[in-house]
Amino acid sequence: MTTQEQQGLQITGEMKPGYDAILSADAIEFLSELVHEFAPALKQLLKDRDRRQSEIDNGQLPDFLAETRDIRESHWKIAGIPTDLQDRRVEITGPVERKMVINAMNANVKVFMADFEDAQSPTWDGVVEGQANLRDANLGTIEYTHPETGKHYRLKDQPAMLLARVRGLHLPEKHILYKGEAIPGCLMDFALYFFHNLGIRQAKGSGMYFYLPKLQSYKEAAWWSKVFHFAEQRFKVPTGTIKATVLIETLPAVFEMDEILFALREHIVALNCGRWDYIFSYIKTLRRHADRVLPDRQVVTMDQPFLDAYSRLLIRTCHKRGAMAMGGMAAFIPAKDPQENEKVLARVTADKDREARNGHDGTWVAHPGLADTAMTVFNHYLGNRPNQLHVLRDEDAPISASLLLQPSDGVRTEQGMRTNIRVALQYIEAWISGNGCVPIYGLMEDAATAEISRTSIWQWIQNQKTLDNGQVVTKALFRQMLAEEAQVVRSELGESRWQAGRFEKAITILDQITTDDELVEFLTLPGYQALD
Ligand SMILES: CC(=O)SCCNC(=O)CCNC(=O)[C@H](O)C(C)(C)COP(=O)(O)OP(=O)(O)OC[C@H]1O[C@@H](n2cnc3c(N)ncnc32)[C@H](O)[C@@H]1OP(=O)(O)O
Ligand SMILES: O=CC(=O)O
Ligand SMILES: [Mg+2]
């Protein structure tokens, strides 16, 4: 490598036709500036996560911070919410694949959250073509013809507003190197989306809107604030051109919501209850706390006290500061059978009703077939208002740390463990094959929901939990069940699908991350080594 290459970025991914428009010299120069300026501090933030986790492993419990009491107790508000982000009552989410982008923006929703994180397996082609898809979507020119059916897709008049969710801070992009090292994936997603869409969105009188996933502390939010200021100054656009919604989907972050809003006050418009990662984070953060091991995944629903408290505190905190409080995802997807589908819609209605009643300003759906259902519920609660910022939830003060950490009741069943194995196995296989979101047993499974499945088993092994049938969960029991359940999956999917897939590799990864005594931080980290 030449000295010049060492100072700049080296692209090792294949440059297919059209990629040079996305990875243009000017776009790469901007990305290189961001990496040079911000990657070192990001490394330190990731080390801080490890240090904090060691303290919790050694017996401390997460709590509200003494050092930031002033921020929690003083009066201030976020800078404001642009008019075109005031009404977000239903948002659809999905990967940045071309056909899905068009379908999502045509759904009966206000917003499409285009996802480089939980729903997207970050293949090189996926992330570069995803940027082209989002640019074309913002331009309004995006089209797609299905190669087999010939069905043509284009945007309707007044499609949904596009928000981009960049990758989490932990995920590298190995096809672009800086001084020989993989760059942070989040900076690639942010830089390219910002560079290619700023002019398009400004011409529409709009701004640059992002979702930020998996933050664990206000210091990470402050890092994003610096990135946003840098980008705005570099392109000479007003402060606040960028607006962000932060997912509160880690247990440490729930104790720092005021601080996160404050750190990003010039750029933030909302927090979101990312419930699936939050459950995963509860398991991960409290991994060494034997009294807080979760039961079967199926019984950890939003009426568990620790989840209900999280939703209510998020609404109260946001509305006090003038920010919106977005709800989360019911993982159900429409069923083909009409009677079964009635049940799905009833469950989605109940879930959305709880959120709207609590005071959330909007919610998520995973599939266009659920948009009308969620819309009906939120229309009912919102009436003529665009949101529920007036709901202050004063009756909730204070929500204590012990409520946010409350252990959950519920069974641990053999069936629950076997289902977790089959789901984790199929999801890992899909992810390392380049598909980040799949339907499995009637539910949407993505990088957040699958994490719950695999960490539950790890946690039960580490804490030698007893199943409802009297068996103690051990590594040997897991390995026996993994072998059996792999055969169940093989017969469910058929031999040709099994042979064409990457199931043997997925079995190896699942075995390794479940039996390792150290909890692997994210399944997507070993997964990424197996990708491409
Ligand atoms: C925990 C979290 O982070 S949640 C956020 C991340 N997760 C997500 O974004 C989930 C997104 N959802 C999906 O990817 C899909 O709904 C899946 C994979 C779960 C199911 O997809 P499919 O099996 O294709 O569903 P199905 O066959 O019913 O789809 C019917 C049509 O709806 C489209 N569709 C389904 N979900 C979506 C979506 N989220 N966005 C856009 N279009 C969609 C399909 O592309 C298909 O279109 P077509 O008829 O033109 O071919
Ligand atoms: O990103 C959303 C979640 O639930 O996780
Ligand atoms: Mg998530």
Question: How would you describe what is shown here?
Answer:
It is a single chain. The chain is α/β, with parallel strands linked by helices and 532 residues long. The chain folds into two domains: 21-403, TIM Barrel (Alpha-Beta Barrel); 414-529, Malate Synthase G, Chain: A, Domain 4, CATH 1.20.1220. It has 21 helices and 15 strands. It has helices at 3-7, 19-22, 25-57, 69-73, 98-106, 124-139, 185-203, 218-234, 251-254, 257-263, 275-285, 305-320, 338-358, 371-382, 401-404, 414-432, 447-462, 475-493, 495-500, 503-515, 524-529, and strands spanning 9-11, 90-95, 111-115, 143-145, 152-154, 161-165, 172-178, 181-184, 208-212, 242-248, 268-273, 324-329, 362-365, 438-440, 443-445. The strands form four sheets. The chain has an eight-stranded parallel barrel, surrounded by eight helices. A three-stranded antiparallel β-sheet has the order 1-7-8. Strands 4-5 form a two-stranded antiparallel ribbon. Strand 4 and strand 5 (152-154) form a beta hairpin. Helix 11 packs parallel to helix 17 (447-462). The longest helix is centred in the first third of the chain and has 33 residues, at 25-57. The protein is globular. The two termini are 23 Å apart. The mean pLDDT is 97. The ligand O=CC(=O)O binds at residues 118, 247, 249, 274-277, 328-329, 448.
